[in-house]
Amino acid sequence: MTDTPTPVLAPATFQQRLLDWFDQHGRHDLPWQQDRTPYRVWVSEIMLQQTQVTTVIPYFERFMARFPNLRRLAAAEQDEVLHLWTGLGYYARGRNLHKAARVVVEEHGGAFPLHSLDEMAALPGIGRSTAGAIIAQSQGRRAVILDGNVKRSLTRLHAVAGWPRRPAVERRLWALADHYTPNHRLADYTQAMMDLGATLCRRGTPECGRCPFSDVCVAHARGEERRFPESKPKKALPTRTTRMLLLRDARGRVLLEQRPSSGLWGGLWSLPQFDDALALQAWLDIHAPDSRLDAPGASFTHVFSHFRLEITPQPARIGSLDSIGEARRWYDPDNPDAVGLAAPVKALLASLATFTLDMPPGP
After folding, report:
1. Which one of the listed residues 45, 106, 170, 310 is annotated catalytic?
2. Strands 269-270 and 273-274
3. 189-226, pLDDT tens digit by residue?
4. Cα angle at 134 between 131 and 139, to 5 degrees?
5. From CA 269, how far away is CA 164, in angstroms rounded?
6. Which of 160, 275, 350, 353 would suit a FRET pair with 251, their CA atoms being 20 to 30 Å apart?
7. Contacts of 202 (CB under 8 A, 6+ apart)
8. What is the Cα–Cα distance from 93 to 83, expressed in whole angstroms?
């Protein structure tokens, strides 16, 4: 089997059809399409990974208002970056965005290494496709992209069998993407390829009747649009359990602790977590012996890509706590701090009613 399926159209014909469609039906007024600097394109590309445009727009605008350039982002604290990322999900993206900004400042003098696709792709959280998008969109230079939307369109167009992240399948898709990429109108072409997958060649309900390639699409000719791209072989998601301690003081504040910089919810602020009720009680016996437990809250499940987390909130009360240790803080739900919160924790904090406590306040 060769790496490249036989192209369905000559590159020039493919490009002309796509750009004609884009000129008439593409998206031309997205915030990051205005003033296409490498920085703005980069932030938008990272935010758009596995996230819809309509969700990203308000986050992008708030992010640009607070961090209008790369040096401002690099100088910020991670907490502030993750606070603006709260609710967007996939928080490693936010951490890598911050880390990459500091690398560019410290190792590249504050300017992206746009002369080198390899150096761009080596920056934290970027990779080959995002590097290509930044170069093509901001510089107008030829660079190939292969994000999820482009993979889906090319996979259907050629009926490429196999899960697109398998190395052999991905090589074939990169070869196709390179074959069709032009030497002109690169910003428009890359945006058009992303728009095609996002607006017409969608995952569940492709609009083949409006597609400029419906007459040559192999999956459409077979009536197998929904077969492609093929899904990753499924494995049953394991379930983990955790107890989240909702410890509140006499002022109604909630104790939070910062997660380690790597791993689950890295760098975000969360409720103290324990494997079971015994471990939670043991921690209270040591750190908050005067606390009182309330009845546990209703358990709920938060689903990650590789496991399910069953969370049981455990409310507790304390009059005061002299020392809360490092990487912990008191959080006032009525006057919230600007910190990054894990999504389930944000939901739990938002659901708290006005708090009253029938124990005397501490000194």
Report:
1. 45
2. unpaired
3. 999 999 999 999 999 889 999 999 999 999 999 999 99
4. 125
5. 35
6. 275
7. none
8. 13
Question: Could you give all domains of the chain from N- to C-terminal order, each with its CATH number?
Answer: 11-227 (1.10.340.30), 239-350 (3.90.79.10)
User: Which helix (H) or strand (E) is 139 found in, with range?
Assistant: helix 127-139
| Neighbour tally for 70: CB within 10 Å | 23
The bridge status of strand 254-258 relative to strand 269-270 is antiparallel
SS3 303: strand
Record the tokens describing residue 138, joined without a space.
């901001």
CA-nearest of 193, 238, 226, 202 to 27 is: 193
* Cα gap 331→255, rounded to integer Å: 6
Give 67-126 pLDDT, tens digit per residue: 999 999 999 999 999 999 998 988 999 999 999 999 999 999 999 999 999 999 999 999
211 near 217, Cβ under 8 Å?
A: yes
Residue 45 annotated to the active site: yes
DSSP E strands: which ranges in 271-324? 273-274, 292-293, 300-303, 308-317
**Residue 162, SS3 per DSSP:** coil
